[in-house]
Amino acid sequence: MERERVLVPEAELERQREFEERIRAMFAARQAHPLACVDTFGCQQNVADGQKLMGMLESCGFTLTADPKEADVVILNTCAVREHAEDRVFGNLGALTHTKKENPEQIIALCGCMAQEQRVSERIKKSYPHVNLVFGPHALWKFPELLWQVYESRRRVFSVQDEHGTIAEGLPVVREKGVKAWVSIMYGCNNFCSYCIVPYVRGRERSRDPQAVLSEVRELVEAGYRDITLLGQNVNSYGNDLGSGYDFADLLSEIDRIPGDYWIRFMSSHPKDATRKLFDTMARCSHVAKQLHLPFQSGSDRVLREMNRRYTREQYLELIAYARSLMPELVVTSDVIIGFPGETEAEAMETVSLVEEVGFDALFTFLYSPRPGTKAAELPDPFPRAEKQKWFDKLLEVQNAKSAALHAAYVGKTVQVLVDGESGDGEFPLSSRTEGNRLVRLKGGKELIGKFIHVRITGSNTWALYGEAVQR
Ligand code: SAM
Ligand code: SF4
Ligand code: F3S
């Protein structure tokens, strides 16, 4: 697709700023101090989108609140990746009927991945009359205009057309305070893994211009952010649509030249596009954290084919072996699905054996959830949930033992961490992360927050390490 069609023109963004101004003026005329609440579900990309929504709300004159009861505008920024995620949103929407009863002027909006599903927007139209505004990820940048339409027309507004995906640069962002920041480097997905809804709701892959990413990372480092994660559904295909031959490894190399004290991470990586060049670059670049999230999904070649993943178990193992040969200290994590339609117990155990073979530091484990509209949802799914749950429990047992053993091996060692906040634990009141993103709860005072320090690890369990600061 031509670049002009992908980038939202500056004139359009200027128009949106005019709508922000109109909304601000409307509240000023009423001498009102409006509040807004954004509740985000789902992955980090959605969190990053939520931060842009908050930025636009602030530009419209809203003050942010975490309490939907007191908010004039409530936005549910939703996820569609599993049925459970959708159920939670419908539950929350139900609860909002009460807040709306108390405050009939309240505007309720639903956005994010679920909103882009026709099935969902129709259900909202029919059965959730208290929802005023529904818009999908494609329309995120038009939020000021959509909100204005709701205020002006007093009608329900739906903006869920299946448009070609765009990139809007320069939207305002409200970031989490602290040391961590997220930077989307690309949007959408072209992979159509057969179980996954994301390509249907987020559109085709489009990469931001390298210069836009570089200046955002530079600004974040200058503003004191120390742990920056580059986001994309498959960052390894970054640049494919730019047509210049510039790839993700090139982007990492350029970011690495930005001076300062910080770590760069990235997620997710698709094994089919993970190259030796990427691992060579990671090993060479001092700011790039030695941590890799490389989802494998299944240890069975037949299931991988059915999932349309386009790599084999052996190719996956080769990638990990190559990466570890360059970076022996590499922390490796992954995503895995148990119970894909037709997966047998023997195939699920191939997944368990791959987990044993690789020895992941941590794993995000999911029971397959059929997503209407995807290919896998049409496949026969003969095994009952209770049976799949047993395989799942076996996987967890193996992984938990491994995580605990890998964590135990840290005890007595001194490692560098970035202190990122308070832990809420009285004895170990600080929370910090190693370069490999392992959680370390620490003894120490708040003055350490935001600093890279060395700590001696004194204890561990499956989920966390415990330690105390040492002088170097
Ligand atoms: N693009 C990333 C990738 O490929 O790794 C992340 C995709 S998704 C947001 C995160 C994880 O959810 C996937 O890696 C997969 O393990 C899981 N997932 C996606 N669709 C699923 C489904 N229908 N049922 C269960 N888990 C699913
Ligand atoms: Fe979904 Fe596959 Fe795309 Fe990840 S790469 S978002 S799992 S389709
Ligand atoms: Fe969910 Fe959409 Fe992310 S479906 S996992 S919020 S891309």
Give a short synopsis of this structure:
The protein is of the alpha/beta class. Helices cover 37% and strands 20% of the residues. The site of iron/sulfur cluster has 10 residues, from helix 7.
Features:
about 475 residues, alpha/beta, Rossmann fold, pyruvate-formate lyase- activating enzyme, OB fold (Dihydrolipoamide Acetyltransferase, E2P), 3 domains, six-stranded parallel β-sheet, five-stranded mixed β-barrel, 14 helices, globular, binds S-adenosylmethionine, binds iron/sulfur cluster, binds FE3-S4 cluster
Give me the secondary-structure topology:
Blueprint (H helix, E strand, L loop, with lengths): L2 H4 L3 H20 L5 E6 L3 H16 L3 E2 L8 E6 L4 H20 L4 E6 L5 H10 L5 E3 L7 H11 L3 E3 L20 E5 L1 E2 L10 H5 L3 E2 L2 H13 L4 E5 L16 H9 L6 E5 L8 H9 L6 E3 L7 H6 L6 H14 L4 E8 L6 H14 L3 E6 L17 H24 L5 E9 L7 E5 L4 E5 L8 E9 L4 E6 L2
Parallel strand pairs: 1-2, 1-3, 3-4, 4-5, 5-6, 7-10, 10-11, 12-13, 13-14, 17-19
Antiparallel strand pairs: 8-9, 15-16, 15-18, 16-17, 18-19
Helix pairs in contact: 2-6, 9-10, 10-12, 13-14
Bound molecules: S-adenosylmethionine, iron/sulfur cluster and FE3-S4 cluster.
The site of FE3-S4 cluster (F3S) has 12 residues, from helix 3 and helix 7.
